[in-house]
Amino acid sequence: MSKFSVGLIVSVVVVGHVITSTLILGLRNSGPVGGLSSVDAAAQREAIDSLRESVDRLSVAASSRPSSSTVTFDPAGSGAVDLAARFDEVIKLLKALEKSIVAKNEASDELAGLKLRDKLREQYRTEDGSVIAEELLAQGKFAAGGNGILTFLEAHPDHPDTQDLMRRARNAFQQSGYLDKALWLHGEIMKKFPEHRGGDLHLLAMLEKRMKKYDEAMQHFNESVELAKTEQDRMSRLLSRAELVHERDGDSAGLEAYREVERSAKAAGIEAGDEARKRADSIEERLATR
After folding, report:
1. Angle at CA 156, nearest 5°, toward 143 and 167?
2. 239 CB burial (10 A radius; 0-12, 13-18, 19+)
3. Quick check: 117 pLDDT over 90?
């Protein structure tokens, strides 16, 4: 069997597959979310008709092909057509039709995604919207759950659990890696609930440390230490600040920072310095082996 005959068979199979796929996709998307416009449908029908005509001509040529490598035929009586050239035209038409189908389906999928998002937003805005968002968090879908909580709070700004929900959304964004959004939301929490400024400054500094915003983190650690209401809170925040110094400035600076926390805790008569002492000892052992 010649390469033209093989090519003809392949083209017929592919054309049939493309036509069938087009019809199936048209039916699938014929509902409210998608579907072919009258212009798209007419263009695809025209392309399919052209492909059918080309395949018919190729079939006639292949069935009567002599032994020579080039075959000419003139179904319309208007001139000769080279079989290889005609086969190339069929391939071009196939590519054009495929591109049309892909573009149409991408547009339909995008529209479907937008409609689904709008539907979910409406669900989040209902009285049970926070419950739906919590279910997503329980499934590990942190970003979606966090956005769901924010949408719920947009519709219910005076909800009695607003502070807790905002904090849960912030934590969800942190867990999903959306640190910029978590940082923004934490700032909104601090504005709306300033009575927790000391603890929130500590949390803010921890988030900034994770984001490598060391200067801002150091400033906020210092402020949170000054606002500590108990010695236990103060030592905890001093330890977090020492972690920042160690991470930013290396072992020598970290060693001194941890020892300072250890001394402060001892002077205050609390056991919070134990962790600082362990970390300092570990650094000293590591430095001694270098």
Report:
1. 40
2. buried
3. no
- Cα distance between residue 264 and residue 107, in whole Å: 64
Output the average pLDDT for the chain.
80
* Bridge partner list, 82: 72
d(CA 92, CA 160): 64
Say how many residues make up the chain: 290
> Which of 189, 137, 194 lies closest to 164 in space, CA to CA?
189
Pairwise CA distance, residues 122 & 61, whole Å: 60
Q: What is the dihedral of CA 264, 267, 272, 274, to 10 degrees?
A: 90
Note the helical H segments in 37-178: 38-63, 83-124, 129-138, 142-155, 162-175
**233's tokens:** 């809170």
**Residue 34: per-residue pLDDT:** 45
Whether residue 163 has pLDDT greater than 70: yes
Q: Quick check: helix, strand or coil at residue 72?
A: strand
Report d(CA 38, CA 44) in Å as an integer: 10
Count CA atoms within 13 Å of residue 4 on its CB side: 24
Residue 214 has which token pair?
A: 């060391």
CA distances from 119 to 78, 112, 129 (A): 58, 10, 12
CA 12, chain centre distance (Å): 40
The pLDDT value given to residue 24: 45
pLDDT in tens, 20-55: 555 444 544 444 444 445 555 666 666 666 666 666
Half-sphere exposure of 82 toward its Cβ, with a 13 Å CA cutoff? Answer: 6
